[in-house]
Write a structure and sequence with these properties.
The structure is a single chain. This protein has 619 residues and is of the alpha+beta class. It folds into 4 domains: 137 residues, Neutral Protease, domain 2 (Orthogonal Bundle), CATH 1.10.390; 148 residues, Immunoglobulin-like, CATH 2.60.40; 160 residues, Zincin-like, CATH 3.30.2010.30; 82 residues, Immunoglobulin-like (Sandwich). It contains 15 helices and 30 strands. A hairpin with a 3-residue loop joins strand 24 and strand 25. Helix 13 crosses helix 14.
């Protein structure tokens, strides 16, 4: 009997051991849901780009300095120019060829854009047609040379490779001479390529969606135009005594000391060259210089009003046709935009900021923007401010727009919201504009159709959302709901300061925001940028001692709830994102002596929760 009992016990132990082994085997083969807080797979930090998200001790970037002389022929509708590009190779290796952009070729019949005949991009009420509306106007390269030696460029649409007779060594320079001309289109069509430590040559072609990624340098540009024309451009006007009357120069001098607009050319004077031009016949040459910029643009016309004022040493200029009556407020809008961005994020670094009324939906260049005559004050302020916001992203912080528009258009839209709210404070528009991206969520973040922000812009089916509004919503959510305003603002300012006039990547941004804020945010970037995860926070149940909360969606965020107690008192409870460390359920302990009657999750409706039917529960 004792022996049989012993045998039974041995068998039982063997069975238990076998069951435990099977449980271990089942556990080892059952897929484990990865942690929502796992690290992003980012490039390893190095001497060029550090683990803190800042430029490293061996960070480098190339430089391109331009000296250009161009003539605008208004009879033939052609611009012709000659330029010398002084290229400095700051990379650690030699270069046997250079890549350049010839982006005016977007308007040739053989361009990718024209061959595809893509439909225009629609942004709410605005349409961007990159087909050039049938205009055939590519650039003609008359000569490309180094010294007296002519080169034979290889052109692929909007990109061009130059094979060099001798390599440019590390630390070396080369001077390129280029002569060119192209017809001027009736409408806008919408540079040396960037060679960096991340991807080598960045020569993605320009086909419309996705804008520019360019090297920093200086420009010295002479523009010859009809004497009756007024010119606005990137940079500082160096010969005002040649191209402006004494009256205009006196008014400009006054504007440099004025907070309110000064009329450099009045409505009555616009289109009257005998009153505003040094000469009413022939041609005049305007000379502009600029440093620490990545591009150059100009506008010219004979019938322009010209207002100017000053903000903290920078000349703020607005030029517009007399019939654009709403533009009489544009200078004030421009000054307030530059002032807001400067005080809130990073001081405007350039000597002037000019915006010109034109027949396009809005475009930005260093120190110069183009904005249409809008039907309402709010529309005009928004577009004008948005284009000036690009002076920060990407003119100062030089991200790659052709790959990551959310770092350009998105960051810009985010800062624009605060500027519009301040300009129209006290009005229904001003008091509600900052929630606009959240209100757009249901119409654009459609399951199965929405695309991740990290996708290339040329693949984007809803660029209005993925490049502009969703990144702005992401940044607002991070600022107000995750980090808090003070913590976020410090980190974002540090990002701008660290990467001013440099080329940050997404990994640099992620790392610096983590480093400066003191919070690991990989979980946040994964949800918002690399996936189309959706938020669904819920109240599962209310017990006598605990409130049971759930994260039923795929997006992770902190939780806020309003708790109503049976004694009639209420409490607003904010729980940090770490509440989800152990999984998608969380039990919140009720304070001793209290009994809960009702719980409402996200009571301010500040988060993009896709199912609010489970946010409110009563006991």
């Amino acid at each position: 009997m004792a022996r049989a009992l012993l045998s039974l016990m041995v068998l039982s132990a063997a069975f238990m051991g076998s069951a435990a082994a099977q449980a271990r085997a089942d556990r080892d083969t059952t897929p484990v849901t990865p942690s929502v807080f796992r690290s992003l797979e980012l490039p390893a930090p190095n001497a060029y780009r550090t683990g803190s998200g800042r430029p490293g001790p061996r960070y480098w970037q190339q430089r391109a300095d331009y000296r250009i002389a161009a003539v605008l022929d208004t009879v033939r509708k052609q611009i012709q120019g000659r330029e010398t590009i002084h290229y400095t190779n700051n990379s650690p290796g030699s270069l046997t060829y250079l890549w350049m952009f010839v982006e005016q070729n977007i308007c040739t019949p053989t361009s990718v854009t024209e061959q595809l005949d893509q439909p225009p991009l629609v942004f709410l009420g605005s349409t961007f047609d990159f087909s050039c509306k049938g205009f055939d106007g590519g650039v003609t390269l008359e000569r490309v040379s180094i010294g007296e030696r002519a080169l034979r460029p290889t052109v692929y649409g909007t990109t061009m490779r130059l094979d060099l007779p001798r390599p440019v060594p590390a630390g070396g320079t080369v001077d390129l001479q280029v002569a060119w001309h192209f017809p001027v289109p009736d409408y806008g069509a919408g540079r040396l390529a960037v060679y960096d430590d991340v991807r080598g040559w960045n020569h993605e072609p320009y086909i419309g969606a996705g804008e520019f990624y360019l090297e920093y340098g200086s420009f010295d540009v002479s523009l010859t135009v009809p004497a009756t024309y007024i010119v606005a451009a990137t940079g500082t006007l160096r010969n005002p005594e040649v191209v402006l009357t004494a009256a205009q120069r006196t008014r400009l001098a006054a504007a440099r000391r004025a907070a309110e607009p000064v009329a450099v050319i009045t409505a009555a004077e616009a289109g009257r060259p005998d009153q505003t031009r040094p000469s009413a016949t022939g041609q005049l040459t305007w000379r502009f210089t600029a440093d620490s910029v990545r591009d150059f643009a100009f506008a010219a016309g004979p019938q322009l009003r010209w207002d100017a004022s000053s903000y903290d040493g920078s000349l703020i200029q607005t030029l517009y046709r007399p019939k654009a009556k709403k533009w009489e407020e544009a200078n004030r809008m421009a000054r307030e935009a530059i002032k807001y961005f400067s005080e809130q994020w990073y001081h405007y670094p350039y000597p002037q900021a000019t915006t010109v009324e034109g027949p396009i939906e809005g475009m930005e260049y260093p120190m110069l923007t183009f904005v249409p005559d809008s039907p309402a004050r709010e529309d005009l302020q928004w577009v004008l401010s948005h284009e000036f916001g690009h002076e920060w992203f990407p003119m100062v912080v030089g991200s790659n727009e052709r790959l990551y528009p959310w770092m350009d258009e998105g960051f810009n839209t985010f800062i624009d919201l605060g500027g519009a709210a301040r300009y129209f404070a006290g009005t229904a528009y001003g008091d509600s504009i900052e929630v606009h991206p959240l209100h757009l969520y249901a119409d654009h973040a459609i399951a199965g159709q929405e695309q991740p922000l990290i996708d290339r812009p040329v693949e984007g089916k809803d660029l209005f959302w993925t490049a502009y509004q969703k990144p702005a919503l992401m940044m607002q959510t991070l600022r107000y709901e995750v980090l808090g305003k003070e913590r976020f603002d410090h980190a974002f300012r540090e990002y701008i300061r660290a990467w001013a006039y440099k080329h940050p990547t997404p990994a640099d941004f992620f790392r610096l925001m983590r480093d400066a804020s003191g919070m690991d945010l990989d979980w946040f970037w994964r949800d918002w940028i690399f996936t189309t995860h959706r938020l669904d926070q819920a109240v599962d149940s209310i017990g006598p001692e605990k409130v049971f909360l759930a994260n039923r969606g795929t997006m992770t965020l902190p939780l806020e709830m309003e708790v109503t107690y049976t004694d009639g008192s209420t409490e607003r409870v904010r729980l940090p994102v770490e509440m989800w460390n152990l999984g998608p359920q969380f039990a919140y302990r009720i304070r001793a002596g209290k009994s809960v009657r009702r719980v409402v999750v996200d009571p301010r409706k500040a988060l993009p929760d896709v199912d609010r039917s489970n946010n409110d529960r009563s006991r």
